[in-house]
Amino acid sequence: MLSNLPILSLSIWLPIIGGLWVVFAGSRRSANAMKVEALVISIAAFVLSLLLWRDFDNAIGAMQFVERLSWIAPFDIFYHLGVDGIALPLILLTTFTTVLIVLAGWEVITDRANQYMGAFLILEGLMIGVFSALDAVLFYVFWEAMLIPMFLIIGIWGGPRRVYATIKFFLYTFLGSVFMLVALLYLYQQTNDSFAIQDMHNVALGASEQKWIFIAFLLAFAVKVPMWPVHTWLPDAHVEAPTGGSVVLAAVMLKMGGYGFIRFSLPIAPDAAMAFDGLMIALSLIAVVYIGFVALAQEDMKKLIAYSSISHMGFVTLGFFICFQVFANTGNWNDAAMGIEGGMVQMISHGFISAALFLCVGVMYDRVHSRQIGDYGGVVNTMPRFAAFMMLFAMANAGLPGTSGFVGEFLVILTAFKASFWFAFFAATTLILGAAYTLWMYKRVIFGEVTNSAVQTLSDISTRETVILLALAIPVLILGLWPAPLLDMMHASIDLLIEHLSHSKTVL
Questions:
Q1: What confidence tens digit (pLDDT) does each residue in 147-195 have?
Q2: Beta strand 77-83 pairing with 64-72
Q3: Measured between alpha carbons, how far is 83 from 64 in angstroms, rounded to an integer?
């Protein structure tokens, strides 16, 4: 058992300290040696997360593996960590993805490879810190610190417009976070000078206070998801980021907006969340439908997948906020819980699928040095193994039953039916639009005759690339065919959240 070990601290600080070692020791050692060390550190962090999963009790909805030490004593700020069934799947996704990112950059990154690997390890530790923090100040420190390695990853190893993309990414996310800081400071005063997130959950706020707190959190988390209309930074960041940057951005960093809603907005301001549920549902459905059409018009593969991410993340926020409409119609909070569980499953599933699709684009870009759909065609003739993997991930992105892409969307649509037929109708358009833009891209890139001399000379994926794509194909299929372990992991914690929401007022 891990009860006597600071397992969460080890999970956070092992990659951070290891990343700093890789960055600063790399100038005195060979690039290959530093890559090996980065891989070992990332695997060790993944093993730690697996140990967390092994000893995690699914029947307990409260925080587990709790660590609490005094940090800034005069203000009662604590180094306070813990995980529940909502945070643990995201930690597992983070550590798993980082191993693949290190492997993906093994042969591709030749310029400052040690700094590249080190930046991702540091980013990994900070992201785990976000999902583990139970003190609002600690959460905010980790939340803001993540911007630094991501800023450097895009700014140093990105494309020709990387400076523009990094500044836009930084300004959008930083400005949104300022409003969150204001909300946290106000809540600190209302909780008798406590920054404990659990104390903030239990504080009694008036109707007007809840509305302003909810709006402040919305401005921070909506940018991170990103929701329409504050989504414009994401396509630029994806297009200019290196493959590893796009993977971590889509697979993990976008999930922090959804995590923020479920950890802060819903439990701290439940009545305001109920009052604004119509707005949140509308914004989510606009993302699902409108951004789906925008993806259909893209000629750049990375931009298409970026817009696809925005559309699919609309399902996450839809699942989280439609629960109030379901309760209003059925009077049963258990029916509402399905939407939140569907949103959580969608976050994890999208992490695997989007990572896989960006890695597939990276495989082709490394060979042809183009992301334009029109520069390809007939890839199946020269890369049949790669074409088979990409077919699986394209189908999963379109929501094919039997893949992870279907499970979360199905749960959210099913919940939406209990709220309104029209909510479910517009949400279900993603099954058509997702298939349209994903399979249209796949058809033009993979099938047909070879029309480009660069495609004619392509070599199929290597053993390293096969391992990476296979590692993503397995969870996409397992989660699609057997989602029970994930649902069991999060069920008790979501039930605890639903119990909290059920004690809020029915009208504001």
A1: 889 888 888 888 788 888 888 888 888 888 889 999 999 998 888 878 8
A2: antiparallel
A3: 5
pLDDT tens string 37-54: 989 999 999 999 999 999
Residues near 500 by Cβ (< 8 Å), separated by ≥ 6? 201, 267, 270
Which helix (H) or strand (E) element contains residue 204? none
Q: Tokens in use for 289?
A: 């439908």
> Whole-model pTM above 0.85?
yes
The answer to whether the beta carbons of residues 269 and 213 sit under 8 Å apart is yes
Q: End-to-end alpha-carbon separation of the chain, Å? A: 46
Q: pLDDT for 238-258, tens place per residue? A: 888 888 888 998 889 889 989
Q: Nearest 5 degrees, angle CA 221-CA 222-CA 223?
A: 90
Q: Is the pLDDT at 1 greater than 70, yes or no?
A: no
Token pair, residue 265, equals 């907005």
Name, in order, each residue with C-beta under 8 angstroms of 280's C-beta and a sequence gap of 6 or more.
273, 317, 318, 320, 321
Residue 281 has a CB neighbour count (10 Å cut-off) of 24
pLDDT at 508: 36
C-alpha 379/C-alpha 12 separation (Å) is 41
**Calpha distance 234→254 (Å, rounded):** 9
Residue 478, phi-psi category: left (phi > 0), alpha (psi -120 to 50), beta (remainder)? alpha
